[in-house]
Write a structure and sequence with these properties.
Nucleoside Triphosphate Pyrophosphohydrolase, 2 domains, 25% helix, NAD(+) diphosphatase, alpha+beta, single chain, metal ion binding, six-stranded mixed sheet, metal-binding, 14 strands
């Protein structure tokens, strides 16, 4: 990989820092409505169930697809009591959409997850599958009360759980995390490879927000912990739900001095490099490495960040 030896000038930094996401992150294209009335009124929920569509989702977050590549929705009468098993994902064009946890069935359909097909689904189906994967994963992990240990039951059409012992209510959790594109203010970006990733797979840096920490503080801490360099000019870019199992990725950019030595975190980061804009442009959109660089797929906000940065520079 190429490396850079000169920190960008003030004019170069100003131009580089102006970049934005190249487009809305693919899992942020929500166009599905859901109101508290729909969640809280059991009679209304029952009506929505009887006239709705149901998406089965397995433990690996996969849903069945039709031969056309669209999600394979099912009739409500193919499933049992909606109150105990289904979650209301939202309504679109007057039709309620529900999600149900199932084991894959031999129905002739192909079962795929968001990583595989999220990029190719339309706005509505991408939003519905994203919600289903995250919400059903939360239910799998919230079966017992955190206060007294008794079992919990679903309420509010799947948007909360109530303890059968003490009555305590729990609501779906979202874990905030930051993802940051660190650049030199000119034409190089800092990319790293986690130890669990295959060779040549690189991305921008990311990490979870800790208790009592601001988002900007998380950016500074995580970048320093992962590669050992300080950053400045932290700027918000956008966000994307990432239900693996329940994260919200908040994207930032920041500037670092490429003359600072890189110190990859032992056991976490296998290697880190400054990579040229030209090399990033060449590698984007390819499903295999290009000259030793394999970048995140289009479904991720990391891809949108890298493409936005790559497109912002001179041709």
């Amino acid at each position: 990989m190429t490396t850079c030896s000169e920190f960008g000038s003030a004019s170069e930094r100003a131009a580089a820092e102006a970049f934005q996401l190249d487009s809305t992150p693919l899992l942020s294209r929500s166009s599905v409505a859901l109101s508290d009335q729909q969640r809280d009124d059991p009679e209304h929920a029952a009506t929505l169930w009887s006239g709705g569509r149901v998406l089965p989702v397995d433990q690996r977050g996969r849903a069945p697809l039709e031969s056309s590549g669209r999600l394979a929705w099912h009739r409500p009468d193919e499933f049992s009591d909606h109150g105990g098993h289904a979650v209301l994902l939202g309504t679109h064009d007057g039709v309620a959409h529900w999600g149900v946890r199932v084991r894959p069935r031999d129905s002739g359909s192909d079962w795929q997850g968001l990583r595989a097909v999220g990029e190719w689904l339309g706005d509505v189906e991408a939003a519905l599958l994203t919600t289903a994967v995250g919400l059903l994963a939360w239910h799998d992990r919230a079966r017992y009360c955190a206060l007294c240990g008794a079992g919990t039951e679903r309420i509010r059409s799947g948007w909360a759980r109530r303890c059968t012992g003490c009555g305590h209510e729990e609501y779906p959790r979202t874990d905030p995390s930051m993802i940051c594109l660190v650049h030199d203010g000119a034409d190089h970006v800092l990319l790293a490879r986690q130890v669990v990733w295959p060779a040549e797979r690189f991305s921008v840096l990311a990490g979870f927000v800790e208790m009592g920490e601001s988002l900007e503080g998380c950016v500074s801490r995580e970048v320093h912990e992962e590669v050992g360099v300080p950053v400045s000019d932290i700027r918000y870019l956008g966000s994307q739900p990432w239900p693996f199992p329940r994260s919200l990725m908040m994207g930032f950019s920041a500037v670092a001095d490429p003359r600072e030595p890189l110190r990859p975190a032992p056991g976490e980061i296998a290697e880190a490099h400054w990579v040229s804009r030209e090399h990033v442009r060449a590698a984007l959109g390819h499903e295999e490495p290009v000259d030793g660089l394999w970048l995140p797929p289009g479904i991720s906000i990391a891809h949108r960040m890298l493409r936005g940065w790559a497109d912002a520079g001179p041709l």
